[in-house]
Design brief:
This protein has 339 residues and is mainly beta. 5% of the residues lie in helices and 39% in strands. The longest helix has 16 residues, at 11-26.
Length: 339
């Protein structure tokens, strides 16, 4: 299946985006931040593809699973993308699932796109061909639910709850201990992109990276709800965040080790990005409109805010951190080199 390239929209869409673009330009901006993109409805996810900023949003017409904009980082800013070409990803079945997570594969530069609160992950290649890559998830959150580690493996967050995500199929006998009804709680998977394995990859038939064992029907009930993941270094260590704002690390022993808790708030559909020194950047989302940096030893620094629903994060080759300020339909940036 192919995604559809489109150039701008109709009169109603253009008028709506003209208003949002003006709002994005005129809204107050915290010191040190620069507006780089306007006119993109509710931007959710960002990625850097060489010298191009990739932006995922839901679009403004409600007739597609999502829209992808690309912006040249070497051009003049701000850029109004409301009348520029974009890639529209159609609804793929009667569920009308929308896209809420995105990760760029570092070798092929394919985009991996996850359904928000859905069960599937798709791959969009350079020729705009869309294919189903992962199926069988229970409830994939939005935000930083997908990421690639240093070894090129896809890391995914999931949440099992038979009351809201009943399984369509039962797993094979050797994986009976992983039945949905035996466990309610967070799941972390790590998938190697092996081209010899037929697609889609049935993740409900794979043992998770975390937890390794959950011990019967009560297993997982007291574990926190995980909402974001960022592989550290080569990927042997993961940083995850729960909905209460606590950062944890998951190491080779698959234990969930708390590191630090962010300022009080509800952390839902948030984003997280690893730094080269083992720390992470965290965007607080709608309820906590702040960008934080958390060092390897757990020290928390407030970098920017207040922002209007900061969502996707991307670290550019120019030393700037790009932030999707979703409620104002714009992308902003600020320098983080040396932080």
């Amino acid at each position: 299946m192919r995604a559809v390239s489109v150039r701008g929209g109709g009169a109603i869409l253009a008028a709506a985006l003209l208003f949002s673009t003006a709002l994005g330009r005129e809204a107050s901006l915290p010191d040190g931040l620069e507006v780089v993109v306007t006119g993109v409805p509710r931007p959710l996810q960002l990625a850097i593809d060489r010298r191009t900023l990739v932006v995922l949003g839901p679009g403004d017409r409600g007739d597609s699973a999502g829209e992808i904009h690309r912006v040249d980082l070497d051009g003049a800013f701000p850029v109004d993308v409301s009348r520029r070409p974009r890639v529209r990803v159609p609804f793929l079945d009667a569920r009308l699932a929308t896209l809420g997570s995105m990760a760029l594969e570092p070798t092929t530069h394919d985009l991996f796109l996850g359904e928000e609160n859905g069960t599937r992950v798709y791959r969009l290649d350079a020729d705009e061909r869309l294919s189903l890559y992962v199926d069988g998830l229970r409830r994939l959150p939005g935000g930083s639910a997908l990421a690639f580690d240093g070894a090129g493996r896809l890391v995914l967050l999931d949440h099992a709850d038979p009351l809201i995500s009943p399984g369509e199929e039962r797993p094979p006998r050797e994986l009976e201990q992983f039945r949905d009804e035996d466990y309610r709680g967070p799941l972390v998977f790590r998938v190697s992109l092996d081209p010899t394995i037929p697609l889609p990859r049935r993740i409900d038939r794979m043992p998770p990276l975390f937890p390794r064992a959950w011990g019967g029907r009560a297993g997982g009930a007291m574990l926190p709800r995980l909402v974001a993941v960022a592989p550290i270094g080569g990927g042997s260590v993961l940083t995850v965040v729960d909905s209460g704002g606590t950062l944890h690390r998951v190491g080779a022993d698959s234990r969930l080790v708390p590191v630090v808790t962010l300022p009080s708030g509800q952390y839902l559909r948030i984003n997280m990005l690893a730094t080269t020194d083992g720390g992470v950047f965290v965007s607080g989302g709608f309820s906590v409109g702040v960008i934080f940096r958390v060092s390897l030893d757990g020290a928390v620094t407030r970098l920017a805010g207040p922002l209007a629903d900061p969502q996707g994060l991307a670290l550019g080759p120019d030393g700037y951190l790009y932030v999707a300020e979703s409620s104002l339909h714009r992308i902003v940036r600020f320098p983080v080199a040396g932080r």
